[in-house]
Amino acid sequence: MSHIVWSIAGSDSGGGAGIQADLKATQSFNVHCCTVITALTAQNSLGVEALNPVSTTVIESQLTALSQDMPATVIKIGMLANVQQIQLIAEHLTHYKATWVTPPIVVYDPVAIATSGDALTEEDTVDALKTHLLPLVDVITPNTHETQLLTGVYLIGPEAVKEAAARLREFGAKSVIIKGGHWDYPKGYCIDYGVEADTEYWLGNEKIQTPHSHGTGCSLSSVMASCIAKGYPFKDAFILGKAYINAGLKAAIRYGEGVGPVAHTGFPVTLNDYPQVVEAGSWLADELEFTLPEEFNFAAGFASIDDLIGLYAVVDSANWVEKCLAMGVDTVQLRIKDSEQANLEAEIQTAIALGQKYGAKVFINDYWQLAIKHGAYGIHLGQEDIDKANLAAIQEAGLRLGISTHGFYEMLRAHNYRPSYLAFGAIYPTTTKDMTGQIQGLEKLTHFVPLMEPVYPTVAIGGIDLSRAQEVAATGVSSIAVVRAITEAQDPQQAVLELKQAMTQHD
Ligand SMILES: Cc1ncc(COP(=O)(O)OP(=O)(O)O)c(N)n1
Ligand SMILES: Cc1nc(C(=O)O)sc1CCOP(=O)(O)O
Ligand SMILES: [Mg+2]
């Protein structure tokens, strides 16, 4: 499917920021970018020599041409040079949001000051931005200077960052990401804060030491716009923007005498370039003075899996565990979702004993206490389960731990625990479980696997059947987990044989 992003921004004659950066960044994500140019800045690597705002008539003609034929999934807004431009853009966005069949998602990266320190907007624009533009913005991505300029909150620590984000939401922005690139707190780190609906999160990574950072804000928001256009959640889009910028800063070089532009190095493929999800208990969280939950049982580094996970059946009874093991399935998970089931403990105990009898890997889903009590091979937990389970007890008991992930944020969060395997789902739509809004597709799986497979065995789950097993295995994922492809097969034994064959027959 083709995706269109519009970039409403200024041209940077130096080629490092503005429209020029936006085109390079969107291209890296195979997204088509249309442009509405708001100013023809005269810049080089040493600074901004002139702003040259474009007239509202010329801006309007660009908007009209595009809206007639190439409506955008996402509109990314950068530099708006004056109050008239802000009002014009706000009027048009209001109209698009009210009349387009699919209202555009608006990403706003406030552009007030260039890397060189020069102003990029007239002085009286702040009130107009708050009154006219922010109520139309779905996600705003200011840096610390821009946050202070828009909110008046001086960012002296995490609480102030949260307060500033709350103000931006009061002005109407639905989601807020405050970038910590200029913050240097803790020293040498770059900490970002995000808040959307009722969730908030912090990301962090070591600061990349380079003077050549021109165009980072424009590029990051353009990556976000591209990923959002492709259906990524905001959090994941931001993570990809961060990883893209980190990789680009490492590769950045000088072109003039001053500050060089961030490099554009394609989809980020190096785990080291991705930020950490900052969670209570980590060193970064301690530095940020996060309060620890009452029962804090963080643990990282779980027992490894002895051999290949192979074909992984997820079933709901000890009876099915036995059938699968007898049919030669490599790994089996007992997944009973009714915690009131009368024979729950007996089923778990039997499944674990069967694993021992067959010398096979049997994982228990959810019931980590019973899994420890009866000596299971491993436990499988979802993202919500991680908060409640005693991870330290699981680790001490030597049980393997598998964690479910649905997207980049959850993948990086799970990585904090260094589990025994990572599962990616749901790859395709499934009727076994409600995975609405969490279907990853093969394209994302092809990004997840090379990032994580060098660190852990990886598992793909969700909607996988014989017709799809080969293309899934071709991503390099070490294991395929299925429910219906075995339990609803006319001939389960034949299904097991064919699934195993398909897993080895890919290129
Ligand atoms: C191999 C594998 N991957 C993912 C899941 C899903 O686990 P979870 O997110 O805990 O959801 P429930 O299975 O408990 O509904 C899984 N079970 N196995
Ligand atoms: C149990 C489960 N977890 C998923 C996840 O994505 O976390 S998808 C899923 C259901 C998989 O069933 P089937 O093979 O029948 O599609
Ligand atoms: Mg679970």
From TrEMBL:
GO terms for biological process: thiamine biosynthetic process; thiamine diphosphate biosynthetic process. Its EC number is 2.5.1.3. GO terms for molecular function: ATP binding; hydroxymethylpyrimidine kinase activity; magnesium ion binding; phosphomethylpyrimidine kinase activity; thiamine-phosphate diphosphorylase activity. Its cofactor is Mg(2+). Coiled coil: none annotated. Residues 317-486 form the Thiamine phosphate synthase/TenI domain. It comes from the Bacteria. Pathway: Cofactor biosynthesis; thiamine diphosphate biosynthesis; thiamine phosphate from 4-amino-2-methyl-5-diphosphomethylpyrimidine and 4-methyl-5-(2-phosphoethyl)-thiazole: step 1/1. It catalyses: 2-(2-carboxy-4-methylthiazol-5-yl)ethyl phosphate + 4-amino-2-methyl-5-(diphosphooxymethyl)pyrimidine + 2 H(+) = thiamine phosphate + CO2 + diphosphate; 2-[(2R,5Z)-2-carboxy-4-methylthiazol-5(2H)-ylidene]ethyl phosphate + 4-amino-2-methyl-5-(diphosphooxymethyl)pyrimidine + 2 H(+) = thiamine phosphate + CO2 + diphosphate; 4-methyl-5-(2-phosphooxyethyl)-thiazole + 4-amino-2-methyl-5-(diphosphooxymethyl)pyrimidine + H(+) = thiamine phosphate + diphosphate. Transmembrane segments: none annotated. Residues 12-262 form the Pyridoxamine kinase/Phosphomethylpyrimidine kinase domain. 4-amino-2-methyl-5-(diphosphooxymethyl)pyrimidine binds at Q333, L334, R335, I336, K337, N365, S404, K433. HAMAP family: TMP_synthase (MF_00097). Belongs to the thiamine-phosphate synthase family. Condenses 4-methyl-5-(beta-hydroxyethyl)thiazole monophosphate (THZ-P) and 2-methyl-4-amino-5-hydroxymethyl pyrimidine pyrophosphate (HMP-PP) to form thiamine monophosphate (TMP). This is Thiamine-phosphate synthase.
